[in-house]
Amino acid sequence: MKIRTLALRIFTQLRHDRRTMALVLLAPILVLGLLYLVLSANDSTSTIVLGKAPSFIARELKKQDDIKLKIIAPDGGSWNKHEQTTSKAALKKAIDDNSAAAALTMRKKDMKVKLYLDGSDAGTAAKISAVTGKILQEKAAKSQKQLMRQLPVSLQTQPRIDPSLDVVYIYGNESGDIFDNYGAALIGIIVFFFVFLLAGINFLTERISGTLEKMLASPIRRYEIVFGYTLGFSILALVQTALVTLFAIYVIGLKVAGSIWLVFLINLLTAICALTLGILLSSLANSEFQMMQFIPVIVIPQVFLCGMFRLSGGWDIAGHLVPLYYTNNALQDVILRGRGLSDIWMEVLVLLGFSIIFIAANITTLRKERGW
Questions:
Q1: Which residue from 69, 128, 174, 225 has the least number of CB within 10 angstroms?
Q2: Is the pTM of this model over 0.85?
Q3: Which residue, 170, 188, 197, 178, is CA-closest to 319?
Q4: Residue 143 sits in which domain range?
């Protein structure tokens, strides 16, 4: 009887805790759904820029089962074999402008292929390289058979047609490991996750202990409280950001093609964004356990939506609504592609914008708390 009474009391408490019930019932479905989108993204299409090349290349690329490819011209329009470029600079620009995975040119007379790859997605780059090599070998074998049939019997001595595939990595390299491809995004995710917890739990402690209530009863202004806490936590977040970045680069060996100072800047902005969001959400929690409940619904979905994984359908568009999407884009551009501030200024502004919105929301929340 005592066991039954205790079990009923626990169940009744949980049933009336809406946050816990939502976590138990909805969070697993959300996470499982996102995992499904990631693991079922094999049907996603990669873009390849085709420069000057015979039409059979485009035809064979579209037929491949190993990877779905969308063929475009260097100007982003529909491709045709006439009046296309072979310039490396033009094809590199086409890869950047169209977020393409590769660019390809070919000389038909000797089957010399130049393949430019964006190695920031090593899996896709490897597939495109393998598919292109297979197409060349099959075409060479077919052409050799045709040539043999055209020669007199006395001259049929095994003429050789040797295709050539020259692979150039515009970004990344063929020898890069998995961490080189995902390390940039993982740095941002780790910084965001731990700063979010640090700020949320510590600010929650301030509320529970009555420290915040005493400050609200004093002449101190609300925005001064918010900026004071943000600045105080930012100092620790800055130290953590520096340690994570330096460890990834100098201990683990993450290769950084761009400026390490830009990596620091992006991670610091990410930390401030996570800090202000953690402070904001702490106002909705009454215990550290409730603060931890925000992880499956706030942090984990951002990991899937930030662009580190290819998502099927139009779900990648949802990533534009979360801060980690812009962190990942900026870190990928700096670490893997060696780009500068002029290339990532939009991501920097968006991260600043998120922080400003969260700070304004924190000030509004304190106004309501003071009213209580």
A1: 174
A2: no
A3: 188
A4: 41-171
